[in-house]
Design a protein that fits this description.
Blueprint (H helix, E strand, L loop, with lengths): L1 H11 L7 H28 L8 H25 L21
Helix pairs in contact: 2-3
Length: 101
């Protein structure tokens, strides 16, 4: 949970992730793997290869949840690996009377 909070705070501060190429390659691999697993599972359900105890509707719901989570992660990585696309840091409010210097 702390990693998620730190990731969101990094975006709020306008910090881009280091090693953007590695993160993008990882995101592509995760997307391809989840798409393949989702398609293979759907095909197995359609062919009746999975256990009769598993309802096909449940398999489709789990597959949809997996795809939604992957796309959420991909969206974050897309924003976090690009300094221009990331969230701009908040402008600091300065007060001339309180600033020391």
């Amino acid at each position: 949970m702390k990693a998620i909070v730190h990731g969101i705070r990094a975006l709020q501060k306008g910090i881009a992730l280091a090693n953007a190429k590695t993160w993008r390659a990882t995101a592509t691999a995760v997307a391809a793997t989840s798409a393949f697993l989702s398609a293979a599972t759907s095909f197995a359900v359609a062919q009746g290869w999975l256990s009769e105890q598993i309802d096909p509707q449940v398999v489709m719901e789990v597959s949809s949840l997996l795809v939604a989570l992957v796309f959420t992660g991909l969206g974050y990585l897309g924003v976090a690996t690009d300094a221009e696309q990331g969230v701009a840091p908040k402008a600091s409010k300065s007060n001339a009377f309180l600033d020391e210097g």
